[in-house]
Amino acid sequence: MTETAPRPTLEAVAALAGVSRATASRVVNGGDGVREPLVERVRRAVEELGYVPNQAARSLVTRRHDAVAVVVAEPETRVFADPFFALQLRGISKELTAHDNQLVLLLTEGRDDHARVGRYLAGGHVDGALVFSLHLDDPLPGLIRRAGVPTVFGGRPGWDDGSGAEAVYVDSDNRGGAREAVRHLVGLGRSRVAHITGPLDQTSAADRLDGFRDVLPDADPRLVVRGDFTPAGGERAMRDLLDRRPDVDAVFAANDLTAAGALRVLREHGRRVPDDVAVIGFDDMLPFAEQTDPPLTTVRQDIEEMGRLMARLLLRGHEGRATAEDAEKVPEAQEAGGTPFGVVLPTTLVRRASA
After folding, report:
1. What is the pLDDT, as a whole number, of residue 164?
2. Are 249 and 278 in contact, with CB atoms under 8 Å apart?
């Protein structure tokens, strides 16, 4: 049997670098107060020996775990089927990796999972949490507040967790993007513009419906049909819409997946897009939006950047705690606009063949 070589110790690093163990520990754990020549000697010793810090021991010293929980308030069947989540997770992962932090993914299928997530966060396993796709009746904000972990939310908060505290969040200009989409349809001469919503217990869907109503406050109520951000939901809503108002000549769908479902139903019914019915989505998830038939006109939001900025706000918090002041320190947050607690990224209408 081949014997495994013993792991290099911090004492061995200190001896090779010619410094005390305390100095070596301070350098390895990111502490201050060590002169640069000594820092370089310790780093060279770490590289030469292949020393890897014991994370458990390091956490006792630094009170940090170098791990962040990403909590998605959706079942795994939805998360892994919707490219939106992949893009947002990619942005988060890139930022955490750049800062040598681990991503711990937590999904919620039901109420039992909410309690499990709350217990995990309260257990001190991570330095903070990034939470998105929340619904208005979701107990997670309250559970997270009681767990006492620094948190940044994806999407405008629409809940009251009873604490009276402001939440730090990153969102896109959902309402403004919806207004631009509907104005474009009206500008094309369309007079019977419909909206297939997302789930209205989520603030992004509610804001997009508000943007539609900003432009068409007197729209026939039959032209607003509820969807769920999925292709199947888009198909159901489009069939319902054609039954209600067969003369519909334009559709603003709450996201690209919904629009794709609507396009399939319009083809089944022999409706030409955009000649008979113009269609606009929301997200601009490439290459998905370019591969629909016809290629989809849509409102672009930078989903990956939203994830990256969420992680950056959390990591730049005071000792890991995200606050309003932290949002003000991030240049991208200042450029994007919003309140001191909320960063709102701009949206852009991307014109393709569907409208």
Report:
1. 55
2. yes
